[in-house]
Design goal:
Distance between the termini: 72 Å
Structural class: mainly alpha
Mean pLDDT: 89
Helix content: 55-70%
Radius of gyration: 23 Å
Shape: globular
Number of helices: 16
Largest sheet: 2 strands, antiparallel
Order of helices and strands: HHEHHHHHHHHEHHEEHHHH
């Protein structure tokens, strides 16, 4: 045993000197998480990070077989699901994981908003998180086309029509996204590059910045609890991290159950010359915008209705990004209930529009 343990200790000592993990362990041991009745929401950030790593891991496995061309994309996904050992499982985990990832990021942002964790000095933490939310939606939008099936093809055609409503630069932006005037193989190649290269690179850099800001500023305490004389805390390592890992294991179980009980369907191969089938719609996180644009009249006060709708959604996105600068009262310790009611109104409207989009009567062609 001594002959075995001595080399092992030597290797560990060599690694410890070069990696410096003891310094990291000391930093982690000094980090504490506030303990109160809303502590459960703190786990959403770690859950989002874990699901992102799941997406990266399963995405790399899918890249080994996927072919990003209009003539081979559908067949390569079909081969993954039918011939590659456990390929159907990896693809289903990737697809279900994408939806769960976006959902957890949305819940994380909502909880941060209502807990007022964007107050000074955490403005940049919120802004980087908002940008990560937009990037998560970008992952969903760009990855939706890659199987090159009927549903994703026509949904992408509708989705890339939306930027064209922006005055002046809209048509150019739509052509840049599509790589031409319509959704073709060039669009697929472009979305593939965005999905597997550009978005991961930008997300990784922004994610590191976000984690650095969280480490530097610590976790916020809701305003009502700041005035309490005694504030209980929980050590991040190992107590909070172990509880976080329990949630990760539950997420793995949920993804495995969804993938086994309801494997992600492939559908029919896209035919650009065929008419759009009924019921074409995007993923659930775009349904509220999709449905709202359907309800808008052609003209509002003499201006194109869709253009005003796109402008409104852009305004909402800008408001989310710059919220810490807009809600100055929260930074001074006096958060206004007006912002809460506005958020509740927007969330309720998005929920109603999403439900309407899922109803059979609302599933007709655009």
């Amino acid at each position: 045993m001594s002959d075995v343990s001595e080399p092992t200790r030597g290797i560990l000592s060599w690694l410890r000197e070069r990696l410096g993990w003891e310094a990291l362990a000391r930093v982690a041991s000094k980090k504490h998480v506030p303990l109160h009745r809303w502590t459960l929401f703190y786990y959403l950030g770690g859950m989002a990070l874990f699901l992102f790593t799941v997406q990266v891991a399963t995405g790399i496995l899918l890249l080994l077989y996927y072919r990003p061309s209009a003539s081979e994309a559908f067949e390569s996904v079909q081969y993954i699901m039918a011939e590659v050992p456990f390929g159907w499982l990896i693809r289903s985990i990737h697809s279900w994981g994408a939806n769960l990832f976006v959902g957890v990021v949305l819940l994380h942002m909502i909880s941060v908003f209502f807990l007022k964790a964007y107050r000074a000095p955490r403005e940049l933490t919120w802004m980087s998180g908002a940008l990560l939310l937009f990037l998560a939606l970008g992952f969903g939008f760009s990855g939706y086309l890659l199987p090159w099936n009927e549903l994703s093809f026509f949904a992408t055609r509708v989705g890339t029509d939306v930027p064209a409503q922006i005055p002046i630069i809209g048509p150019l932006l739509s052509r840049v996204l599509r790589g031409g005037s319509d959704v073709t193989g060039a669009t697929l190649s472009r979305f593939y590059g965005i999905h597997v290269a550009i978005l991961p690179a930008v997300t990784t850099g922004l994610l590191l910045l976000h984690l650095l800001l969280v480490q530097k500023q610590g976790m916020s305490v809701p305003p009502p609890l700041e005035r309490e004389p005694s504030k209980r805390t929980l050590r991040f390592f190992p107590d909070f991290l172990l509880r976080d890992m329990v949630g990760w294991m539950l997420a793995v179980g949920l993804l495995a159950a969804l993938s086994a009980l309801s494997p992600w369907e492939l559908g029919k191969k896209a035919d650009p010359f065929a008419p759009a089938p009924s019921g074409i719609r995007p993923e659930w996180y775009f349904l509220s915008m999709f449905q709202a644009l359907k309800y808008l009249p052609a003209k509002i006060a003499g201006l194109p209705g869709e253009m005003l709708g796109v402008f409104f959604f852009g305004l909402v996105a800008f408001g989310i990004l710059t919220l810490p600068l807009l809600d100055r009262g929260a930074s001074r310790g006096r958060p206004s209930a007006w912002w809460n009611w506005l958020a509740v109104l927007l969330l309720a409207g998005a929920l109603v529009l999403t439900i309407l989009a899922l109803l059979p009567v609302a599933a007709g062609p655009r």
